[in-house]
From TrEMBL, chain A:
One of its GO terms (molecular function) is ATP binding. InterPro entries: UBC, UBQ-conjugating_AS, UBQ-conjugating_enzyme/RWD. The active site is at 97 (glycyl thioester intermediate). Pfam families: UQ_con (PF00179). It comes from Dovyalis caffra. This is UBC core domain-containing protein. Belongs to the ubiquitin-conjugating enzyme family.
Automatic annotation (TrEMBL), chain B:
The keyword Zinc-finger applies. Belongs to the RING-type zinc finger family. LOG2 subfamily. Residues 11-21 have a biased composition (Basic residues). One of its GO terms (molecular function) is zinc ion binding. SMART domains: RING. Residues 1-10 have a biased composition (Low complexity). It comes from Dovyalis caffra. Residues 22-32 have a biased composition (Pro residues). One of its GO terms (biological process) is protein ubiquitination. This is RING-type E3 ubiquitin transferase. Pathway: Protein modification; protein ubiquitination. Residues 300-339 form the RING-type domain. Pfam families: RNF157-like_N, zf-C3HC4_3. Its EC number is 2.3.2.27.
Amino acid sequence: MANSNLPRRIIKETQRLLSEPAPGISASPSEDNMRYFNVMILGPTQSPYEGTFVQLLIGGVFKLELFLPEEYPMAAPKVRFLTKIYHPNIDKLGRICLDILKDKWSPALQIRTVLLSIQALLSAPNPDDPLSENIAKHWKTNEAEAVETAKEWTRLYASGA
Amino acid sequence: MGNFSSSNVNSRRRHGNRRSHPPPPPPAPPQPEITANRYVFAAATPYPSQYPNPNTPPYYQYPGYYPPPPRAMPVPLPAPYDHHHRVDHPAAHWVGGRYPMMPQPAPYVEHQKAVTIRNDVNLKKESLRLEPDEENPGRYLVAFTFDATVAGSITIIFFAKEGEDCVLTPTKADLLPPVTVNFQQGLGQKFRQPSGTGIDFTLFEEKELVTEAEVDPYPLAVKAEASPANQNGTEGNQASGAMNSQITQAVFEKEKGEYQVRVMKQFLWVGGMRYELQEIYGIGNSVDGDVDANDPGKECVICLSEPRDTTVLPCRHMCMCSGCAKVLRFQTNRCPICRQPVDRLLEIKVNDGPDE
């Protein structure tokens, strides 16, 4: 069973994520695998990924999956967007280009800090270090239009459903 | 790739009152305990369990003391100091006074345990300041706050040249003779040099007062000795060598036309050895005594369970428990907090005294 011998660190992180969630972020472990988390990140305000206000905030909810490998925290968690997103640092499979998930990982980072970094990446797309060449090119040649596309994708796909 | 790597992850530091403190060290002189391959950790105020210390500075509660690297001008080191003679770890050797630049074959770093030495008098370096001498316009007096667990004396020396065995010699004694003042034991004492003995900046050239890098002589040195000045009174600072003392070296800075004082270096002279004082980041969080494993401010950043007791050197981030540190050193040679290469790990147990 995957949940036996779960390190105390993972148990603590999970407890804290559930009891004190970061604003705009929710992460809850799967029942049958405590190393697998279902994650939802709200698109940051004033980014193309925020929801729309129609009395209530609608949409702008991005689903991700997060998996803690056996070596965690000596190795970074594996994170992927499940919701389609138009972003130069995220590819069509939802893979994320973020330094702390690769060579800049540190065991002092946690699930919470990783998700906060991803949320911040939504506020600050970096087309100079792209994962999706086409989206990055779009961003650099016509940013206004690219942002419109990102907003459109947010409306179409990031409903949270 | 986005750049959200944070170099100050988990940098929360709690500044709670300390309730538990290292026990008084054994009466024997600390020197014999200092053997090869050990670092020294000194508690700034070893006895305060009966005195709550109201002036605890946030990051300076337990300054870590470890021997400074060899200086450019080689100084003969006493034998116990000579802890770099292991052959199994190339990085442990000094090469021409520097660490060898070659990469280590494996991310393995030394794990060492600290030895505690006692610091009887501690000048709180952030409190060092200049105050105008009302009775002598134009002159400025050196003032600061200090803790003393025994009686002793403080000597203010301007333009002090450091000689062998930490003897400080005033180089402009004709203009500004050194001033020695005795004190009684007590924590949080205020010091101000006697009126009339202060410095008149107009008598000196700016380049003598304001110095950029490390300098000798330092424009200001404060020597705090852990025993009263001897019968010769003000000659106490000249005899020096044998007595344990803390020395603070400072420079003057000109800000908006006013001179300010800034501490450059503090060191201890204990048992015939010179220890440079360095701060340890994050240590204040882990020495509160009652280990609350659920407080993110003092738990190991890796297991989130055990209290922190291991400092990464040279960056001095106290962030791990010894167990995780032992695992980490085989996985990576980067500090978890700042990602600087780890040279060695220093385990500092402050709560393992007999009263625990």
